[in-house]
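Per reviewer request, we include the raw input and output of the structure prediction for the construct analysed in the revised manuscript.
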Amino acid sequence: MRVLGLDLGTKRIGIAVSDRSGTIATPFLVLQRKKTRDQDHAEILRLVLEEEAEAIVVGMPYTLRGEMGATAKSAEAECSQLMKVVGVPVYFHDERFTTTTADNALMEARMKADARRRVVDKVAAAVMLQSWLDARKNRGMP
């Protein structure tokens, strides 16, 4: 099952994609937000079709206490709109610490700050998507 992972930011959307077996997540691209969410969602739909994705996993930015703060509520509202457009199931997965994990990995790779800023969102999306894929596999789901 091919899956897209989304890290919804206010300025950018990090996107990761799984392999066709739904085993390995790979950073894919970073979308700059357009003027409207409808434009962003149209671009995500294009990627769903182009990549033949069967599902989308959206990183849910819970608070450190695991609660729904303002950012998570905003992500949930956006996903309600996105679900009406993409035609595939949309799942949520905890994204706490994914950006920090991604940034640390990029620093360990000795990537310069300006280069990290250009890719950290898609790497964070891959960290989140890999976590979802692993959790799904551990529950015995295909």
